[in-house]
Amino acid sequence: MIGQSDLSNRCRETLVALVRQFIASGSPVGSKALAAQMPEPVSSATIRSILVMLEEGGFLMQPHISAGRVPTEKAYRYYVDRVVTGLRLSPDTERYIDQTLRSDGDRLERLMVRASRTLSEVSRNVGLVLAPALEEKLLEHIKFINLPDQRVLVVIVSKPDLVENRVIRLDDTFTQDQLDQAANFLNSEFHGWSLGTIRLEIFQRMEADKIRCDRMLRNVATLFMWGALSEEETGGLIVDGTAKILERPEFEDVQKIKQLVKTLEEKAKLAAILEACLQTPETGVRILIGREISDKQMHHCTLVVAPLVYRNRAVGALGVVGPIRMEYDRAMSTVGCVARICSRLLSSN
Questions:
Q1: Mean pLDDT confidence for 310-315
Q2: What is the CATH number that goes with domain 91-133+235-347?
Q3: Residue 347 above 90 pLDDT?
Q4: Contact 335, 119 (CB under 8 A)
Q5: pTM of this prediction?
Q6: Which fold does the domain 4-82 belong to in CATH?
Q7: How many Å apart are CA 204 and CA 199, to the nearest integer?
Q8: How far is CA 34 from CA 22, 26, 317, in A?
Q9: DSSP character string of 133-161
């Protein structure tokens, strides 16, 4: 069986031409159509001979005896590794992305929503954004507001420029004065700390000094226990454009649609896949094809992902998911462009 490094120039040209034609048309590609695409005149018989070798090498498959060939995951991987360069988007498209991401203020949550929508719109796939996780958010200010029925409104301002409001319900009753004291304590003691570290530090202090643990610390711990700082270790996942991908011919199969929709709805699982991409030493745009994705329900998809960087540190991820028959150049360029602009906006905040 021939490997990627064993392909002759003629085999390489034939394979690349077939992949490009299949991506454009979605139909099996025959020898006549391929011969017309070659840079130099080649007979159909020669092309057929090359196609047989590529099929034996695992790069192509033939859906029916009378049909042309279609690329396998191995062919797409060769195409991505050896051919796709992430060509720059047109100046107009880059300008549109930049203006869209900068519009409507620079709050993190709004930026993440705009990024997901822009990824979907420009790449014509599903846009995904994994917002910065709890550990990456640095406390600027926190406030507690007493509400009826033993509820408390928690307002957290954190870097990078995120304002979060959440209502928690308690078993205990707090006065507004007690809540103000707890907020003042956190703001003075833990300004600039990561939210996850603050939570850990409070419980460690209580554990280290159980006997003399004062009322203030117990009040703060109680607020944390009821969700004042979320237990989530990963940031929220924003998904946009599911309807777009379901219109593609690859998803005419009802079973494939069900599998994909189920995966997109299971945000924790999808977030874990994106989070895993951040744990590798690879930088820049990364492409996972078919069975390279850990979730079996996504083995008929491709995931293009890049880190979201805040001051030289990866704090989240964004990308697109679509069928394996994807416009790889466009997807890679779009993800790279959106990641660069979002990271610049975060870091300049």
A1: 78
A2: 3.30.450.40
A3: no
A4: yes
A5: 0.74
A6: Arc Repressor Mutant, subunit A (1.10.10)
A7: 9
A8: 10, 14, 38
A9: PGGGPEEEEEEEEEETTTEEEEEEEEETT
